[in-house]
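As described in the Methods, two query proteins were run sequentially through the folding procedure within a single session, without resetting any intermediate state between them. The first query and its resulting structure tokens are shown here.
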Amino acid sequence: MLRRIALASALAALLAPVAGAQSLLARFDTLVTRFELPNGMTFLVVPRRDAPVVSFFTYADVGSVDEPIGQSGVAHMFEHMAFKGTTTIGTTSLPAELAAMAREDAAFARYRDARETGAPGADALRTAFEATRDTAKSFSETGAFDRLLDRNGAVGLNAFTSADRTGYFYSLPANKTELWFATESDRFLRPVLREFYQERDVVIEERRLRTDSRPTGRLFEDFLTTAFKAHPYGRPTVGYASDLDALSRDEARAFFADHYSVSNLTVAIVGDVDPAEMQRLATQYFGPAPAGPTTRRIPTVEPPQSGERRVTLIDRAQPTLMLGFHRPAGSSPDDAVYSVLSDILDTGRTSRFYRSLVETRRAVGTAVYETFPGEKYPSLFVVVAVPAPGVDPDSLEADVMAELDRIAAGGVTAEELARARTRIRAGLVSDLADNSGLASALAEAEALGGGWRSLFRDIDAIDAVTPDDVRRVAAATFTRANRTVATLRTAE
């Protein structure tokens, strides 16, 4: 803990205004080793000798935005499949298992066709499919991948799927570093989508619990589908239940082949390691893989919004208000201005929303998302507010818009801007002080197209934001015609 505090203090000093970003970048220029394999897979390595632990973050340039129509949720499904093992981990007999899985897939195809066409015998075909599913599962060793890593000291083993990306991460003792290369290359180069249909049912249940059974979950989904008329940002990452229910393992394999080539992977390694040894292991375990296709950018462009959009949900739940305003992608020169706006509006007890809405008991809580649901493409600046008891959502909406209008008309004070800069720098310090946080931040900065150094150039961009910038962006963004409003009202 003392080492982490000392490191954070040192970084904080480096992050002082004016020369801070350049000083920090100069420091990391001596620490970060970047290399790219001939197949296009990129690695970033940062040695830290504070403890014999190494953190790994694998960034896959694929998210729900890349899913074909009718296959929503397939990106999230592969996140689950990545923990189901490989050709060498998780099976009692690979040849027998693969043969059983082939029969399972054929039985599902027959059942799905009968169900979709309304042909007779669908119930019998479903029973036959379930029998083949049980047979295939009998050859799998459920949880073998996780248990192997747990036995070797892995901590924080997890993953996430978002609209833009998928991330896989955990930490290992430094003397188990080669185990990461062996298992990570195995699951991405030789995956076996075992227990696919059982896990698909798990994801459908996850959707039911997080979205269908939660009024706020349904509100968020309705909010996005209303805000985006053309772009796939309007589709839920978890997927639609009907799409998931019809998804086959063959379709998931095809999606994996299109999007999970090694040239779409960026890995950051931070901890007690030698960069030269990491490059040797990367070449040994990942080098033989072919480059494969890279994820192409989505050509669909969301048309400009020309009028306010609204959606209302009535349920036996606490009222909630959501406002979304279209904004440029994260690569926009104004991205730093949106970060500052988010901080000034909703970070800490000095924020605009806390003082005008929470302290006055107009709202029990607020949240601001500066870019949602992604940043690779033009997205939304989102405000969420929960009315206090007795406060009508329409009245709270007027309060929120009044605060946004004040910034659009009069900008922000120099003091507010200074506090925002300090807090944003402090947030970066917190991320960099932790090995896993640094690995995540470096991999994402590298993969998003600006290179890992863009992580530090962002600090300069924040420091360059002026009150006029904030006023200009707020005036252009927070207009009635550019907003989507979603309201959850309490049913009688």
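Immediately afterward, the second query was submitted; its sequence and tokens are:
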Amino acid sequence: MKILLVDDDPDVVEAITLSFSVQWPEATVIGAKDGRSGVATFSRENPDVVLLDISLPDTDGFQVLSRIREQSDVPVLMISARGEELDKVKGLELGADDYITKPFGYMELSARIRAVLRRAQSLPPISGGGKFVAGPLGINYATHQVTLSGQPVKLTPIEYKLLYQLTRSAGQVLLHDQLLTKIWGPEYLGELDYLRIYVRRLREKLEKNPQQPIYILTERGLGYRFAGQSVQA
């Protein structure tokens, strides 16, 4: 298990490394002190998860995140001394998997890393298999393959799990907290930003006009409903 920590504060790097050596001895922490070395180290080391500070001496963490996302869907957890909601939303929109604000407890950080790894590595079970078709959208539950007009659609594990939950309950309203619990876990109850952002990302990949969706509909104040005409086998 390799964790890339991109942070220019040597005290933070030392504290996280020491904490993980006790709590998580199977993990190796690789440090990078700025954005340029962070991107280079990522490409060289191929880490399992990235801890990425927003404030870096040569750039900001958002630009580093964009560079990482050009190469990989590896889990990225943003860390920052800033707690503004806009920073959190921006990080999630750019593809971060989670966001944690300094100061934080190292047990909490470890728990969040394990959670993002678990979400990234697990997909819904293939038991029951079958296929789902709604107009040009097709899903093969057994292979986790999604197509649009016959062309494969690349989804991240979280995007696929969200689509899986929505289509498995097509026609039904799934409440915000139902989806958050099933996809992110009970500790994310009330974290609607995560859900809104991933719904938007799914719409951008699947809807002809994401601003006027025909598949993933918002039930205001309640949740979301998959409304396409469907055939399940």
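DSSP finds eight helices and 13 strands in the chain. We note this only descriptively and draw no conclusion about the first query from it.
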